[in-house]
Amino acid sequence: MRLSTSFQIQKSISAITERQSQIVGLQNQLASGKRVNTPGDDPAAASQIELARARTAQLDSRIRVLSNAQGQNQQLEQGLADAAGAMQDARDALVAAGNGAYSDAERRAQAEAIRGAYNRLLAIANSEDGAGGRLFGGAGSQTSPFVPTPGGVSYVGNFGDQMLDPASNTLGSLDGSAIFMQLPSGNGTFSATAAASNTGRAWADTGSVTNMALLTGDTYEIRFNASGTAYDLVNTTTGTTLAAGQPYASGQSIGADGWQVTMSGAPGANDRFVIAPSSRKSIFDTMQDAIARLNTPGQMNTGKLQQLLAEIDTAVSRANVARAKVGEQMRTSESIAMAAGREADTVQGFRSKLEDVDVADAISKITAQQTSLEAAMKTYASVAKMSLMNYI
Fold this sequence. Notes:
Flagellin_N, flagellum, cilium, alpha+beta
């Protein structure tokens, strides 16, 4: 087969152009550090790279959300710890005020200590989260959720917790009403309350349910006689005397209709204890009640003291339960963030293998292409000299 000189020249030029193009491409790869700079470089790899890039963006966004949530949860955890501390300080002052040797002036001093704890607790309950929201304002509250009123404190925040990351149940803010306002009296089913007029040093525990099926929801009274040595048990809802003239001993259990309480201490003349269905009360009301009674001589009997202490204990327990919940979610979100970080590293490694250039390999290929280019140029030079005149 006959090959014309022009065909050979064109072939040589094509070889030179191809080598030059390959060298330029390899140089671009070295300059950018990427093996795939355009989809045309490797269509299959480019598609996988885009998928990896999209997944990396999703994981980075998730990690940022979880990181922000961790910061928010740390604030929540600290706020709950501070709230429990303020309530515990109020409890300590109340215990001190129960000292029978204290004067009215000393009890008023303890009332001021409780007032200081009250003010701290109110400030904590209205804490900001650093992003315009409130830690205990519920779902999306932007204003102070706890507002002082003449009758105490009102909750004006939103009900329900706010979730920053529903996928991991990570909290952003808590429903402060559930933590500080809706505290059950007594044991959550019923409460045993000392009458304000009591003069003795008897008290009732929080009581227990002995048979849920027998509970009536009625109100009862334990009424001690003039000597405090015997009692009557009366259903005041129906007006029925269930027990009369029963001898009393400290540590004795008294009950009826599926409930019982343990009475301790020495009752005064005609002291009374009311057993009623549990109601809801705020910790602010409890602390204000304590302040008012300590500032009024003769208003803090032993039974009332024990009742207030039990209410504070319930509030502290509620704050600690919420704190434990936040702590558990912090551990969960941290675990999820770490898993997302590991996946992001894996995806990035996969993308790097597809996209990043192997510098040593690229340099080797450039050297080989330069050698091929030189050979092609020599071939072209030889073909270009071919002429009939060279043989004449």
